[in-house]
Amino acid sequence: MGRGGQKEPLYRKVNTLARGVRHPGGGDYRWERHTKAEKTAEADGVTRGKMRKSGRLGAFDYTPLFRFLLSRVGQDWPAVHAEAVSRLDREEPVFWMVARTQDERRRLFATGESSYFSGLFVDDANRLALVDPELSPANLRPGCACCTHTLNGVRFGLAYDPDSPSDLTPR
Q1: Fewest CB atoms within 10 Å of the CB: 27, 75, 84, 153?
Q2: 7-49: per-residue pLDDT in tens?
Q3: Are 151 and 117 in contact (CB under 8 A)?
Q4: 39 CB neighbour count, 10 Å cutoff
């Protein structure tokens, strides 16, 4: 539990000070300042106004949310959903993993280049369930030899084989 009896959030901030991290919408204003067009607009009585933040800066890692949802398989969906949303910054990431309709169901989904999690859905009894209960990292084959592929945080059990099809194709 966090401070004051409050539970920890189900996401964490990704290091945005690292090299190569791009912030959406940043830096464009510097190329527009002090231009002739701006001076002409100001002469006509039109001003630019304040610089404002556009969108959310930084990225979030929702791995704790995905682990939380997997640990709640078989439990009552409204209770699981309410707890998850109360510990998130927004509701949308819940439905990256949990299918809302029959057409959205996927046996697994990618959260990164080589990280995968099992797909979930809400069954007829209103309980959280796995789309493919027999899916296991022990019998999955990666799509390349250069990355460490994981399913639900566990490394794939089979080695890369260029002659065999990857297990990462949608079914």
Answers
A1: 27
A2: 899 988 876 565 665 555 555 555 555 666 666 655 555 555 5
A3: yes
A4: 10
